[in-house]
Amino acid sequence: MMLYLFKRSPETPSFCSKLLRIVLLLSISCGSVAHASDVACITAGRLDSNGQWAPKFDSVRLLDGLGRAISSSKKDELKNLQTLEITEPALLSACLGDKPMTPADGSQAQTKAPVPAAKPGRVTVVGLGYPQLRVGGALVEVKVQVTADQILMLIR
Q: I need a surface site. Which of 22, 36, 41, 84 has the fewest CB within 10 A?
C-alpha cells in the first residue's frame, strides 16, 4: 500500500514547494533522481530468459508515437516506445542501462523514508535499458523525462 506524503494544494503552495525542493536536493545528492527536469527511470516490468514478459506491470502502459499500446516484449518493437501512461504512482530510480543489477550487500533495509515517484499521467520516454538479473532475464527500464510538477513523494 502506498501512502502519499503530501500533495500540492492551494492552501500551502510555499510549504510544498520548499519541501519538494529539499526532497529533490536530497535525491540529487543520493543519486536516485538527477534533478527535477532530468532523466529518471521507471521499471515497466521484467523479461524472463526467453524474452517474454514475466510480469509486465499493469500500472505502466507503453505507447508508441501514435498513442497505441505496445504489448509485445520484443526489443525491436519496444524501440517504438515514445510515451508511458502511468495509472498509479511509479517509483523513480537511477538508470542502470544494460549493466547487471548489483547484489545486495547483506545490510538491513533502511527505515521507510519518502521516495520520489511519477504522478499518474503521461511522461515522455527518452530511452530504454535492460539491466540483467542474476536469476536470469532482465528488467525493462524506461528512461523518462520528468518535471517537478510530475513528481510526488510517497512512502512505500
A: 22
